[in-house]
Amino acid sequence: MEKLSTRYADNVARMDRLLGVGRSCDMVARDFRIGGRKARLWVVDGYGQDSILERMGAFWLSLPAEAVAPLTEMQDFADRYITFSETTVGFDPEQLSVSVLAGKTLLLAEGLAGGALIDAKEFPGRGVGEPPDGKVLRGSHDGFVEAAVPNMALLRRRIRDPNLTMEGLKAGDRSHTDIILCYLEDRVDRQLLSELRKKLEAITARSLTMGQESVAEAVYPRQWYNPFPKVRYTERPDSAAASILEGNIVVIVDNSPSVMILPTTFFDFTQEANEYYFPPLVGSYLRLLRIVVFLLSLFITPAWYLMVSEPNRLPRWLEFLSSPEPASLSLLAQLLVVEFLIDVLKLASLNTPDSLSNSFSMLGALILGDFAVQAGWLGPEVLVYMAFVSVAGFAQPSYEMGYAFKLLRVALLLVTAAFDVWGFVLGVLGILVLLATTRPLAGRGYLYPLIPFHGKALRRLLLREPISRDNT
After folding, report:
1. DSSP one-letter code for 317
2. What residue numbers bound the domain in which 15 lies?
3. Which of 242, 337, 390, 468 makes the best surface tag, with the fewest CB within 10 Å?
4. For residue range 144-192, what is the model confidence (pLDDT) as tens digits?
5. 295/216 same-domain check
6. Which residues neighbour 70 within 8 Å (Cβ) at sequence distance 6 or greater?
7. pLDDT on residue 129
8. Phi, psi of 176 (to 5 degrees)
C-alpha cells in the first residue's frame, strides 16, 4: 500500500490530480490556515453538508498556533479538534480519493501525517414513500430509497437487536459500489454467509451501475437459458426485516431502492406482505388463491389450445370451450400475437407521460378489444383468455417470476401446437426438469423445502401461519 509522503505540497498536488481538481467542476478544494499551518479540504459539491463543514471550518480557523504546534499525527488532531463523530484517518491516496468520491470530506494539514476523512455527507434523494410494487391496505407505508445509509436505518428501526450486523463491502473496479450484508449474528447460516461473501468479493466487473441487478448478474450461476429468478427483491423494510429475523441475509446495494433477500427458493415467491396484515385465515386464502391463479396463468392457454385443436376431444359438459369464433389468423397465431402485443403495450405505457397514460390505456384496450374482433383479426375467446393471463401475471409481486412464466407459457404453447398431446406432456415435464435443475445464487436448493423435504417449512410457505417466535 502506497502512503502519503511527508511533504505537504506533494500530497496536495497528488490528491488534486487524483480527484480532478480543475478538471471537474463539482470537485471543491478549499485552503485553510489552521494554527498557522497550511491545510486543504476536498469535498464533492452536493455531497457535503454545508452547515457542518462551515461550523468545523470556523472552529479550525480560530485555533491558536500553540494548540496545533505540538501535533505530528492527523489522528491526534482528529481526536482533539474534529467534533464530527464519523471521522477516520487514512494514509493511502487511492483509498482517500475513493472515499471523497463516495461523499466524504478529506482534510490534509501541513506537518500532520495522514488525511482525515469526515463523513459529513448528505446524498440527494427522495423521501421514503411507499414503493409502487409492494402496496398494502394496512401496515407501514415507507419504502427503501437509493441511498444505503437511510435503508440501514429503516432496518435498525425495526430490529433493535445488537446481533443485527451490517457488514460493508465494495465491488466494481471503477464504480466502487457499496454493498451491505444485513443479518442476525446469532441466526444466520455461517456457511451461506461465507459463500455469499466470497462471491461478492470475487466480482470482477468494472462498474455496477444497474445496482442490485448488476450485482446479482455478476454472481449468478451461468444458466442463461433458465428464466426462473434466482433472487427475491423487495422495496419494503418490513418484509426485509422479517426475512432477517428468520435467519436470511438481506443485501443492500447503494443507488438501488430494492434489496436482495437470500437464500431464495421458488416457494418464496408465493408470499406477499399483504397476507401478514390480515388474520391467518384470510391470509391463507389469499396465498392459496395467488398460487392457483398463477399456475393457471402458465397452463390455461396451452391447455385450451390443446382442447380445441381437435374436434370431439372434450366431454359434452365442456363443449362450450371447443368452438372459438373463426378469425383471419389461426388460433396459434392469435395467441402469440396477443402475447406479444400485451408486452408492447406494457413497454409503451412505461414510457408514456403521466398526463397521457389514461388515454393511451383506453386506446390500447379499444384496439386490442372491440376493433380487433370487429375486423375479424382476433376471436373474442382469445381476448378473454389472454386478459385473464395478463391480470394473473400481476397477482404475485415478482415481475421476474411473471416474465419467467410468460416465456415458459409461450414455449409450452409452441410445443403443444407442434406435437399435440405428447407435446403438452413433454413441455410440462421439461418445465419441471428446468425447475429442479435451477441453481440458486446461494442456499440449499431452489426447490427447498420440497427438495430436500422439510414439512414444517413447506407448510409455513404454503399457508399463512399465526405470528410466532420463529415465524415473522
Report:
1. G
2. 8-118
3. 468
4. 988 888 899 999 989 988 899 999 888 877 778 889 999 999 899 899 8
5. no
6. none
7. 78
8. 50, 50
